[in-house]
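Question:
Write out your own:
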Amino acid sequence: MPEASEAKVKLATVNESPASARDLLRIVIVGHVDHGKSTLVGRMFHDTGSLPDGKYESIKAMCERRGVPFEWAFLMDALQAERDQGITIDTSQIWFKTDARDYTIIDAPGHKEFLKNMITGAAQSDAALLIIDAAEGVREQSRRHGYLLHLLGIRQVAVAVNKMDLIGYEQDQFDLIEQEYRDYLTSIGVTPTFVIPVSARAGDNIVTESTTMAWYRGPTVVKALDS
C-alpha cells in the first residue's frame, strides 16, 4: 500500500474559490471505504451542472481506454495511483455552489490506513456528510468516523445511506440502518440532522427526488446541505 501524500489535492478543474460574500459552508464527506463517498460527490457535481465543459466526456473516454465501467468517483480520485487502486488516498477539496450558498466539499479517505488524512479534512469542516452502504450496513469505520467527528466538535452531521439500488430500495432495510446509527450517534452526543436514502450511481435523492423511494419524505442531499 503506497503512503499518502501529506499535501491535499486541490481540484481546480471544477470551480475556483467563490469570490462573492455569500455564506460559505465547509463540509467533509466521510465513511467506510467503498461505501461510495467519491461517487456521491461526482454525481452531485454532474447533476447540478457544476462540471467544467468536457469533464464528463474525458472521464468516460478514460474509462473506455482502460476497459472499465464508467465511475463518477474518478472526478474526485485525481491521483493516478488512486484510480489504479480504486480507493481515495488523499483529501481532495473542491468548490461547489447552489442557489443558496457556496461550499467547500472535502472528500476524505475511508481506508483505516489513511485515518490521519480524514481527521485533517474533518478538522477544517463546519459540517459532515457521513456515507453508509445500504447493503453492508453500519461498519466499524462508520462508528469510528462518527466518534471522531464528535471529538472534533462537528455537530452538524447528516447521514446518506447509499447504494439503495443494491437492496431494491427497500424501506425496511433503510429503517434498520437508520435506527442503528441514530442510536449510536445519540449515545456519543450527536444528533444527525437528516438520514437520507440515496443511490449515488443512479442519482436517487442526490439532487432530484427519487421516483423509486416514494416512502421517503425528507430532503435530497443537496437540499439537506442548503438547509
